[in-house]
Amino acid sequence: MNFLAASIESLGAKVVGWFTVGYGMFAFLAQAGVLMLERATWNRATFDVVVKQVYFTAVQILHVFLGYALVISWLIITIILSTARDFGLTEFASEMTIRVLVLELLPFLTALFIALRSGSAINTEVALMQVNSELDALAHCKVPPMQFEFLPRLIGGVISVVTLAGLAGLLALLMGYLAIYGMDTAGFDPFTQTVAKIFDFRIVAGLITKCALFGLAVTLIPVTAGLETPKKLFMVPVSVLRGMMRVFFAIVAIEVVSLALKYI
Amino acid sequence: MLAAVAALPDDVARVSHELPLRANLSALDNIALIPLYQRHFSATESNRQAQQLLDQLGHADIAALRDPDMTPAQRFITKLARALILKRPRLVIDRPAAMLYDVPYPAFIRELAARADMAGTWEIYDFDWNQVLYNQGLHPE
Asked: What is the mean pLDDT of residues B29-58?
């Protein structure tokens, strides 16, 4: 009986903890959203920090990311093409390539890439700022941390994931064309027709929304996890661990919901 | 934090080891943040004001340094410049011994105060047992 009560109590505490974390994240997001709509936020300083964030998150890693997207795309396209040939489904190969790679796999991998590279760095930096009282110092100087530190990271994350996923998608389309039709321009018409058939307004809007949510997840969750860190240096790795686990679950949840909305 | 310091009003600019610099910004950027975000000056103008303040304090050479690369005295000067650029009527230096453990600090602060162009007052909150250091500074003999 005691065991049962303890289990229920522990489960209850966990559920309350999840709700508290969720509430904290949405409250933070709402605060960021309100600030974004304020005209005063959009001064030169904030704009400069956003540009800097986009540079660090997307531009700095562009060559590595495109190389990685190229290898993954080439591998998946080769697998899809050889499987389609084996089953006599070659006419569906281009559609399958686009659906698997451009709509699902590349945005997901982009989000993971940014989460591992920038999300973990953001989580660590915010946790250290919290532990070292740097946020208290900013508050004393009346420099708004949301405007100076957090909002540019959120915007930079969203722009970076949407742009990188878009570039990887374009690269995959090019690779797909070359793998199916080679350098022959005869395949241009059927290929563009397939692309146009798949990318209707609903799919494009869904893809952009999904990428934007990925971008938000890989920045918002690390920031809020960092802010939750108690002022003890040894808690920084714990904060990063928690934050990155939440980012992983959020990315998977967004992907699962997107798949369910599209195909069920 | 000292209770007296904790109770200070908002119009006080504090220099304290509990209010660190942003570690990933240079000394210049840490100071320039204030005109940039509070008074909405351009980045160029904010940097100019920050550099002018460092020049005035006689430490123009620390502008590019980040917190981990600074000596305690350089870190103190950056914090002091950040507090001065806030242009608040009172400046409180909270337990200088915690920040300036490598220099005879009463004389050091006095020298900086003579260089700084500030209209308000400077106050130092320190432990009683350090009183002797200030007396030594005033009566070197």
From this structure: 91
Question: Is there a domain that residue A139 lies in?
Answer: yes
**pLDDT for B1 beyond 60:** no
Q: Domain for residue A103, yes or no?
A: yes
Whether residues A140 and B22 touch (CB distance < 8 A) is answered with: no
Q: How many domains does chain B have?
A: 1
Interchain CB distance below 8 Å, B20 and A137: yes
Domain range spanning residue B36? 3-138
Using CA coordinates, name the residue in chain A closest to B84.
A141
| Residue numbers in chain A where pLDDT is lower than 70 | none
Which residues 69-98 of B have a C-beta within 8 angstroms of A? 82, 86
- CA pair distance A213, A206, nearest whole angstrom: 10
The ipTM assigned to this model is: 0.84
In 3D space, the residue among A110, A107, A98, A100 whose CA is nearest the CA of residue A200 turns out to be: A98
Q: Which DSSP symbol is given to A122?
A: H
pLDDT at B141 over 50: no
Q: What is the pTM of this model?
A: 0.86
pLDDT of residue B4 exceeding 70, the answer is no
> Which residue range is the domain that position A138 belongs to?
43-263
Q: How far apart are CA B77 and CA B54, in angstroms?
A: 8
